[in-house]
């Protein structure tokens, strides 16, 4: 419901912007003496009557405004990917699963308490299992409170101990753990996989761990990410649990023509 209210509010704002733009265009096109109160009122009435008679104009204006905003946002994010490509794809402060020498890289920003990330895990696992040339970068982006931050700290510290396949097992196990995820749950899963929990307790609060999480947070900010899961393929940023097929298509296209849309 909250997401629907936000979407409706944004559409109202877009409608107001569209109406203002129409009115502004008519006023700008009018002779300079139209600034006189009577003539201004007459133009406003013309705009009002026209919109009442043709309300679809508002819909069309909103749709065009939203289209332009999406294009502008995609362009901004694409430039941000270029500017941060080394940290985004090759940082030492990240986990890499799948084929480390793969020909296409998929980056996921996730939170261990994110319900959509939990659902997207099946899509990610299917991609890794079915595509031997896929390289996957996992970036902890804890946005859902202290528990998420603790889990991210444990995961970040754990990468210093476990090999990629073992870390991937930890990642999958923790994302499929029911209930709220925090320090206790993350430590328990790590212990199951043979980690040194005493070392984890120490390393999770280290400067190295904090720097790694700060780097990811700054990357997310530069890409204008507001939630999880969020993905990067090529130069495109994809927000949300969009499903296996959409991700696979973008990966396949990147492999085929170097872009997510060929």
UniProtKB/TrEMBL annotation:
| Residue ranges of domain Thioredoxin in the record | 82-256
Q: Where is the signal peptide?
A: 1-20
Molecular functions (GO terms):
oxidoreductase activity
**What is one Pfam family matched by this protein?**
ScsC_N
Top-level division of the source organism's lineage: Bacteria
InterPro entries to which the protein is assigned, alphabetical? DSBA-like_thioredoxin_dom, ScsC_N, Thioredoxin-like_sf, Thioredoxin_domain
The protein's UniProt keywords, in alphabetical order, are: Disulfide bond, Oxidoreductase, Redox-active center, Signal
Q: What is this protein called?
A: Disulfide bond formation protein DsbA
| Protein source organism | Methylosinus trichosporium (strain ATCC 35070 / NCIMB 11131 / UNIQEM 75 / OB3b)
């Amino acid at each position: 419901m909250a997401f629907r209210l936000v979407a409706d509010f944004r559409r109202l704002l877009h409608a107001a912007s569209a109406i203002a733009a129409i009115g502004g265009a008519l006023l700008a096109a009018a002779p300079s003496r139209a600034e006189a109160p009577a003539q201004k009122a007459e133009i406003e009435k013309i705009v009002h009557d026209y919109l009442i008679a043709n309300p679809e104009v508002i819909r069309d204006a909103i749709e065009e405004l939203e289209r332009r905003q999406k294009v502008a946002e995609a362009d901004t994010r694409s430039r941000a990917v270029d500017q941060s490509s080394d940290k985004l794809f090759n940082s030492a402060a990240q986990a890499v699963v799948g084929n480390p020498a793969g020909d296409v890289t998929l980056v996921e920003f996730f939170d261990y308490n994110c319900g959509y990330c939990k659902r997207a895990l099946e899509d990610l696992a299917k991609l890794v299992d079915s595509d031997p040339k896929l390289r996957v970068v996992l970036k902890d982006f804890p946005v859902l409170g202290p528990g998420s931050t603790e889990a991210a700290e444990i995961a970040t510290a754990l990468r210093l101990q476990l090999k990629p396949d073992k870390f991937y097992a930890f990642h999958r196990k923790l994302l499929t753990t029911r209930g709220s995820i925090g320090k206790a749950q993350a430590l328990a899963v790590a212990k199951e996989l043979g980690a040194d929990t005493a070392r984890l307790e120490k390393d999770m609060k280290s400067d190295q761990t904090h720097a790694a999480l700060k780097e990811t947070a700054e990357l997310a900010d530069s890409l204008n990410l507001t939630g999880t899961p969020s993905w990067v393929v090529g130069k495109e940023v994809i927000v949300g649990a969009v499903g296996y097929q959409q991700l696979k298509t973008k990966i396949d296209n990147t492999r085929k023509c170097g872009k997510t849309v060929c």
